[in-house]
Amino acid sequence: MPLIIFPTSQLLWVRVAALLFTCVAFSVAAHGANVDGGMADWCIFCWAFSFACTLLVLLVEQFGLQARAPVSWSNFPITIACYATLLCLSASVIFPLYFLKYQQHGSDAARDHRIVSTVFSCLATVAYMGEVSLSRARPGEVAGYMATAPGLLKVCQTFVACVIFILVSNPVLYDSHAALKWCMAVYCICFILSMAVVVLCVGECTGCLPIPFSKFLSAYGLLAVIMYLTATIIWPVFQFDKQYHGRSYGSSNLITVAVLTALNFLLYLADLAYTARLVFVTV
């Protein structure tokens, strides 16, 4: 009778831990935490999505199906791990802030369930951070683009842009000035291009570009830095300066968007520096 042997490694155990932690987090939250609304749905989605993707990665690797997968397996697992890290991190912040600090009502049992979900969400975040650390490319090591610093920065850029989109989903926050509409164009264009790079790398389609992939990354990186620099300056000026009829409506969201815009500018700047080093130093 044939035996199925599952090879073990540090990376395998980290993924199993992340799988268990996310499973407990969303199961407990859905079962007895007595939470509802958009924030609860988002947190449960973060845990469930991370759980499902990690389970998929584990099954494919343990049964040796990497060659049959329609994606680049040198890029897919670490991309999933990086997104899962950011998703679980956001849930670890949002869930206790919204359901433990601001919503004190509910039974003691429901509160205990919320605490358990928060703890296991934090543990899942640490586990996914460990997976990213174990999977990322080391100096001199041949690896997929998504395992390099620029690839991981692309994931962070798209995630930060998604948070910005959520915060400015109300057109009232940006339709009063053409300059603010330009900022929204910056967020959208850079998000689409960064996500396109991620999809091309994971789908192993970088050769489909009409120009060399390295030149595309350099040109796009420089363009994104310039565009985000303008948005970093324009957004706070036109939102908060009384000269331009700055308003306090949704001020907390507006401040958060200003901070995230500056953060993404720094991410794109670091991305450009790493890309320039990879292209011009190694060539």
From TrEMBL:
<feature type="domain" description="MARVEL">
    <location>
        <begin position="6"/>
        <end position="140"/>
    </location>
</feature>
<comment type="similarity">
    <text>Belongs to the MAL family.</text>
</comment>
<protein>
    <submittedName>
        <fullName>Myeloid associated differentiation marker</fullName>
    </submittedName>
</protein>
<keyword id="KW-0812">Transmembrane</keyword>
<dbReference type="InterPro" id="IPR047123">
    <property type="entry name" value="MYADM-like"/>
</dbReference>
<feature type="transmembrane region" description="Helical">
    <location>
        <begin position="80"/>
        <end position="100"/>
    </location>
</feature>
<keyword id="KW-0472">Membrane</keyword>
<feature type="transmembrane region" description="Helical">
    <location>
        <begin position="142"/>
        <end position="167"/>
    </location>
</feature>
<dbReference type="Pfam" id="PF01284">
    <property type="entry name" value="MARVEL"/>
</dbReference>
<feature type="domain" description="MARVEL">
    <location>
        <begin position="145"/>
        <end position="280"/>
    </location>
</feature>
<feature type="transmembrane region" description="Helical">
    <location>
        <begin position="179"/>
        <end position="205"/>
    </location>
</feature>
<feature type="transmembrane region" description="Helical">
    <location>
        <begin position="217"/>
        <end position="238"/>
    </location>
</feature>
<feature type="transmembrane region" description="Helical">
    <location>
        <begin position="12"/>
        <end position="33"/>
    </location>
</feature>
<dbReference type="InterPro" id="IPR008253">
    <property type="entry name" value="Marvel"/>
</dbReference>
<keyword id="KW-1133">Transmembrane helix</keyword>
<dbReference type="GO" id="GO:0016020">
    <property type="term" value="C:membrane"/>
</dbReference>
<feature type="transmembrane region" description="Helical">
    <location>
        <begin position="39"/>
        <end position="60"/>
    </location>
</feature>
<feature type="transmembrane region" description="Helical">
    <location>
        <begin position="250"/>
        <end position="270"/>
    </location>
</feature>
<keyword id="KW-0677">Repeat</keyword>
<feature type="transmembrane region" description="Helical">
    <location>
        <begin position="112"/>
        <end position="130"/>
    </location>
</feature>
